[in-house]
Structures are given as C-alpha cells and as structure tokens.
Amino acid sequence: MAIPCAHFMASEKAVLENGILMGSPTSMASPVILSQDELKKIAAYKAVEYVESGMVIGLGTGSTAKHAVDRIGELLRQDLDTYPVVDLAIDGADEVDPFLNLVKGRGGSLLREKMIESACKKFIVIVDESKMVKYLGGSGLAMPVEVIPFCWKFSAERLRKLFEYAGCVAKLRTFPENGEPFVTDNGNYIVDLYFKKDIGDLNAASDAILRLPGIVEHGMFLDMATTLIVAGELGVTIKNKQKN
Ligand SMILES: O=C[C@H](O)[C@H](O)[C@H](O)COP(=O)(O)O
C-alpha cells in the first residue's frame, strides 16, 4: 500500500533504496522545514508499507514507534484483517551506526524489545536523521545497561572499568524529580554508560558486558536490524541488510 509522505511534495522526495537514489529534490522546490516529530512520522509510515496481511508484527516503544502503531491501527480499521501471526518488528532507536547496529533503551525498554526483535524474520528500524552516528556511543548520550538492583553500585563500577579506555562514565538512571532509581518493566535498574571515545569492537564489548554477574542486558542491538528507514530534510533513505 502506498502511503504518501504528507509533508513532502512529490518533486522533493528523495528515496535511497540500497544505495540507489530513486528520486531527487528539484532545485525549484522551496525548502520545507520539518520538525523532528514529523521526520519520525515519515520514517514510521514508510516502515508500515512493509506490513502485509498475515504477518505477525512486533512493535516497539518510543515516540517514533508510536507513529507506526498509530498507522497500523488506522490501516487495520481501513484495510487489513487481523491475523494471529507476526513476522516483522518495527521500532525506533536512539543511535544507528553505518552498519545498522543500534543503541536502544533510553526510554527504558531494552530487554523485552531485544527478545522480540532478535526473534523476528525482519526488523525495521525507523528514525529521524538526528539518530545517525559514526559509531555507537558517538552521540555522547546514554548507552543503557539493565542491571539487577542487588549490588548495583558494584555492577556500575565494573562496567565503568570495562570501558575505562574510552573514558566511560557510569550513572544509575534516576528520576530527576525525586532521585529515585528508574525501574524497568522487569523490576531492574538501568546504568547509563557515557563514552568519550569509540569503544571499538562491539561484539567484544557486548560479550564483556554480558559476562559480568548482575548484568541482565545492554542496549547495543548488533546485527539485528534488517532494514533502516531514515527520514531527513531531503527525503527518506532506506537501507537493507541481510540478517545473519
Ligand atoms: O527504550 C526505548 C526504546 O528503545 C526506543 O525505541 C528508543 O529509545 C527510541 O525512542 P524514540 O523513538 O522515542 O526516540
């Protein structure tokens, strides 16, 4: 089903599919300034074009995924039958590197999302262009790690030491209004890691984190995304990657 990008005139829509430019902006078109939320919506609507009747869909959380949920609900009311099977996950991300590795969980939902999204045949990531980074951690914002509350300080210090070479700072996530720890939907805490430098080999970093006792999961989603949809001021870019 073709879903028009309401905020783009046809002539302004540039779509890159597997690196091939499918259209380009015209020089005559006047620039359209879109808000970050409008870009998120464009990426989400594009992702919903991948949904077919009969699929089981895994839907994530966050302000970007919400647009996909709303759109699917709208289409279900209009066109689609409900089916008891889901083959495709659609979710937002906090960071995306050039290889489609992700940071997720700044909203606190990483464990359940990782469980669902690692089991899906297709996982479409929808972001606005502000989420693109050269390397994971490159935004300078949090890379979340879900930890067992027992001895969390000990776990946080071990995480910090693991990435000392990258200038890591580890902070328990708390509510600013009362300083109480944020508790995940699994009853755990989140330690946010901040890096000053590239942490290097992501698989090695993942293994090292998961080997620590008291660590439940981390927010690096490596080699999981099969499609990336990025909405930016110049249009929608789509990148596909084969799942291992
Ligand atoms: O914990 C939250 C999820 O991983 C979200 O998918 C992620 O934080 C992106 O959220 P948003 O689309 O609101 O930026």
TrEMBL record:
PANTHER family: RIBOSE-5-PHOSPHATE ISOMERASE 2-RELATED, RIBOSE-5-PHOSPHATE ISOMERASE 3, CHLOROPLASTIC-RELATED
Reactions this protein catalyses: aldehydo-D-ribose 5-phosphate = D-ribulose 5-phosphate
Keywords: Isomerase
InterPro entries on file: NagB/RpiA_transferase-like (IPR037171), Ribose-5P_isomerase (IPR050262), Ribose5P_isomerase_type_A (IPR004788)
Coiled coil: none
Protein family according to the UniProt entry: Belongs to the ribose 5-phosphate isomerase family.
A GO molecular function held by the record: ribose-5-phosphate isomerase activity
Pathway(s) the chain acts in: Carbohydrate degradation; pentose phosphate pathway; D-ribose 5-phosphate from D-ribulose 5-phosphate (non-oxidative stage): step 1/1
One BP annotation, GO: pentose-phosphate shunt, non-oxidative branch
Primary enzyme class: isomerase
Organism expressing this protein natively: Carnegiea gigantea
Protein name: ribose-5-phosphate isomerase
One Pfam family it belongs to: Rib_5-P_isom_A
EC number(s) on file: 5.3.1.6
